[in-house]
Amino acid sequence: MNAIVSSEPGAVDGHGPARPAPLGEVPVSEIRLHGHRVTYRRVGEGPVLVLVHGVTSNMQTWDAVLPLLADRFTVITPDLLGHGLSAKPRGDYSLGAFASGIRDLLGALGHFRATVVGHSLGGGIAMQMAYQFPEHCERLVLVCSGGLGEEVSIALRAASLPGSEIVIPMIAHNSVIEVGRTVGRLLDGLGLGIGADKAEVARGYASLSDPEARHAFIHTMRAVIDHRGQRVSARDRLYLTETLPSMLLWGGRDPIIPARHGRRAHEEMPGSRLELFEAAGHFPHVTEPERFARTLTQFIDETEPAELSNERMREVLLAGAGETG
Fold this sequence. Notes:
Blueprint: E1 3-6, E2 29-33, E3 36-43, E4 48-52, H1 66-69, E5 74-78, H2 95-108, E6 114-119, H3 121-132, E7 137-143, H4 154-159, H5 164-171, H6 174-189, H7 195-206, H8 211-224, E8 225-226, E9 229-230, E10 246-251, H9 259-268, E11 273-277, H10 284-287, H11 289-301, H12 310-321
Parallel strand pairs: 1-11, 4-5, 4-6, 6-7, 7-10, 10-11
Antiparallel strand pairs: 2-3, 3-5, 8-9
């Protein structure tokens, strides 16, 4: 049966650290892949975790959980192409291209299997990686993931429309960004954790003041979203996760991608877990990092990494197609 858990604060019976281990400043590393600069952080030792950020975000979104995971795992947090300090070429910003980039980065660093954790757009990339390169994926963790339903915030739909190139620079103006940050601080001061979502979104939109980042953002959005919402869906392939330990982790108050996407996908992913952070919004790893790290660590401790043979993959594909041989 699929496991549904509503996570609550507090210790998890010895799983995961209760407080961050001091790491100091984790240096940003750089590598050139296919002629493009890719920046990333790598810290810790042990089984490999790759944490994939969402659109307009960057590796820094994972900073709060890095010290909580580094004493058990090798944690890699890249900046996707078009984001952060990585190159922003005029090129392919499809889910498949991003997934290939994650695979190539891991391979270049000498890591050929990993637990893949993706947030928002990064969840869609993680699912695409598990589909394209199952031999490289030990587990799949989707955090407030895209690609599981049509609904998405109106701001992201608007970014895919003709003319968004003109509007986005105005949204990314410093005065608008500062208003968003101020609203976030006020909401947090009232005890409304959803304010952290406002601050994170404001930080993301601030990055769009750079024309190259803005162009990459628009191409990324148009690859997965149109005026009606998300147009790329993984739901027809979720049965394939029967072969892969999988967990969905969602904020119960997510204003960007609703938690019902996670609940429905959980029912369609054989053997999956669903962890609901009831008070969190779209960034549970930012607002509740200790709880996030404990939940992720417990999931890894309680599951075995996938070992998928060609014959087993054939069986699953044929079963999904309704064929018998």
